[in-house]
Design a protein that fits this description.
This protein is α/β, with parallel strands linked by helices. It has 18 helices and seven strands. The strands form two sheets. The chain has a five-stranded parallel beta sheet, sandwiched between helices. A two-stranded antiparallel sheet has the order 1-2. Helix 2 runs antiparallel to helix 14, helix 4 crosses helix 7 and helix 8 crosses helix 10. The longest helix has 12 residues.
Length: 345
């Protein structure tokens, strides 16, 4: 069982999906403080001391390019189970004061609009892939904050790792291309999911995601898919969440062949625990027990055996499904091989 903070246990929010009352757990940060948009703090990463690159070492550099509710945290943890991997989840939170939450999912828009300078974004990401001590220390501080979405390791661990893996859901379009140009030999693992499933999951916590909706996701996916032609098969691979759920080891073997990082016994064990129902024997003392993935079912990275990836069928109305299967999301479904529902709307 996941650990649930005592102050929030039993609290629920009620949302209406397809005319039914569906319970959605209250997230801790929805009950604490206010939900005004957060302030920015990126001057530190543009400081001349930060921008100095340490001595370069040989690393495999991998970016897990993702979107909210696409299973990217699960995939990131499975890949990061490889012992020689340093994992940095949601590093763009470092553009805000340590511990300040991204209320209403505003950080992504601020990055896209240039309120966070391009130079700050690329310096941050380049700093991770060079194990810059100032950058890594900032992320490590962030990883210890309550309800954080950030995962990090110490700079000393980063420097000795074979693979450096980052995962972000706030980097898309032009900004992700800026990072790809800045970080030499960066490989992109692009995870996508059925737009209908993403929409249903976002609707379950509308207070969390603000104006972010299914069509936003679909526009970002289309823009990011063009990376395939720009980077080629040596630097870009696309993964579907549904395939990960159905055949996790086959997907991980494919990623391993792409990155050159072997699928180890530790990764197989992680699959058994995260997706096979195996009880975890020990828990790392490095885990932040107040992290989002530890304190909420909504953000949990555990999938019970028999997990269904098409629960959207009972959560969305026929009208919602029909609307999604047209326009930009319809195009995404066709290009990614998702079958549309055959019915008359």
């Amino acid at each position: 069982m996941l650990r649930i903070a005592g102050s929030i246990a039993g609290l629920t929010l009620v949302s209406h999906l397809a005319g039914q009352k569906v319970k959605a757990e209250s997230l801790p940060w929805q009950k604490e403080g206010n939900n005004s948009p957060g302030s920015l703090d990126f001057s530190w990463v543009l400081d001349k001391k930060t921008l100095v690159k340490p001595e370069m070492k040989e690393h495999k550099k991998v970016l897990l390019l993702a979107y909210p509710r696409t299973g990217s945290s699960l995939l990131g943890e499975l890949i990061a189970a490889q012992p020689d991997t340093s994992y940095f989840m949601e590093p763009l939170f470092a553009m805000m004061p340590v511990g300040q939450l991204d209320w209403n999912y505003v950080l992504e828009g601020r990055i896209e609009r240039g309120e966070v300078p391009v130079e700050a974004v690329t310096a941050l990401m380049d700093g991770i892939y060079t194990c810059n001590e100032i950058v890594i220390d900032r992320l490590e501080d962030w990883s210890k904050a309550p309800h954080t979405s950030v995962t990090a390791v110490p700079a000393s661990v980063c420097g000795t790792s074979r693979t450096l893996l980052t995962k972000t859901v706030r980097l898309h379009g032009t900004r992700v291309r800026d990072v790809v140009r800045k970080v030499e030999d960066l490989q992109v693992v692009h995870i996508v999911r059925d737009p209908r499933a993403v929409t249903a999951s976002l609707k379950a916590q509308q207070e969390e995601w603000g104006d972010h909706a299914g069509d936003t996701y679909c526009k970002q996916v289309l823009a990011d898919m063009s990376l395939e032609d720009e980077l080629g098969p040596g630097r870009y691979i696309r993964i579907r969440y549904e395939d990960l759920v159905e055949t996790p080891m086959a997907v991980l073997e494919r990623i391993g062949s792409f990155t050159g990082v072997p699928v180890t016994d530790e990764i197989r064990e992680a699959v058994a625990v995260k997706m096979g129902g195996k009880k975890k024997v020990t828990e790392s003392t490095d885990n932040n027990n107040l992290a989002a993935t530890m304190t909420t079912d909504y953000y949990s990275t555990v999938r019970a055996p028999g997990h269904k990836h098409d629960a959207w069928r009972r959560k969305l109305s026929a009208e919602e499904i029909g609307s999604l299967e047209c326009g930009v999301c319809g195009e995404v479904m066709e290009r990614l091989g998702y079958k549309k529902v055959k019915r008359t709307y």
